[in-house]
Amino acid sequence: LNVAGNITVQRFALAQAAGTSASYTVAAGKILTTTGTLAVGSSGAGLLTVPAGGTLVIANSVIGETGNGDGTLRIDGGTASFNAYLRVGVSGTGTLELIDGTLTSTGGLNLATNSSGSGSLVIGTSGGSTSPVLNVSGGNFETAENGTGVVVMHSGTYNQTSSNLIVGQNNTCDASFTIHDGLIDIQNQLRVCNKGKGVFIQNGGTVNVGGQLDLANDANNDADARYTMNGGVLNVGDHASSNLVVGNANRAGSKALMEILDGTVTVSNGIRIADTGANSSGTLIIGDGTTSPTVT
What we know:
Blueprint: E1 7-9, E2 12-14, E3 21-25, E4 31-40, E5 45-51, E6 55-63, E7 70-82, E8 86-88, E9 93-105, E10 109-111, E11 118-123, E12 133-136, E13 141-142, E14 148-153, E15 157-160, E16 165-167, E17 174-179, E18 183-186, E19 190-192, E20 196-202, E21 206-209, E22 213-215, E23 223-229, E24 233-236, E25 243-246, E26 255-260, E27 264-267, E28 270-273, E29 283-286, E30 294-295
């Protein structure tokens, strides 16, 4: 698809029909605007690229919309704003690459919406040669709602200015979030696995949690939650006095593991382990015999 000027439409779809493929690049100085939906890889294979100088102004977006859909949205120096929802891997396969530039969603961010959905998000570049910015407000960032969701952060900044970061939302989900470097700043809570399976791995960087950080949260559904910290800085209760809760579900089928193998952890209020009820379960490991983590 080649368009010389700006585009303003109700719906902009790349690869609408099954078996099709389509790509489009928003050139420097150009703007793509939708008053409705941006669909990348609706039922075919679609790629949308926003390099430096390119701009997206979108109401809502679905990437990998149907079971046959395979979509990639690549922000590589440009600016993208989403005023309603942004869903990656709705029923198909969706990939969001924030290599450089700024992406802002004021309606939350959702990966792997349905059980058949597979969503992935990559932030920055290995080695930290870029400094992208992800801003999420107006709803949770759910790294996997019902399907399989993977987030890898290499560099840059992720700001969650309202609602929560939830690594694994519902029973059928399989969610992971890995930070190698960069800054995560969450205004409210970080919840590792409400239900299903959720893993958060911190190899470096700084994670600021304004409210509570809890592992395994839902009393009515099983959860398998793990936070492994191999380095970096973790601050809990950065904006208000809050707890680190390992095993927040009073349910025998749920389990929570917090491994602080290295790095520095500061908790403004206290650490609670499996204190929600007789059926709650939680394990905290500090160090591995060869490292010297700090917990205060």
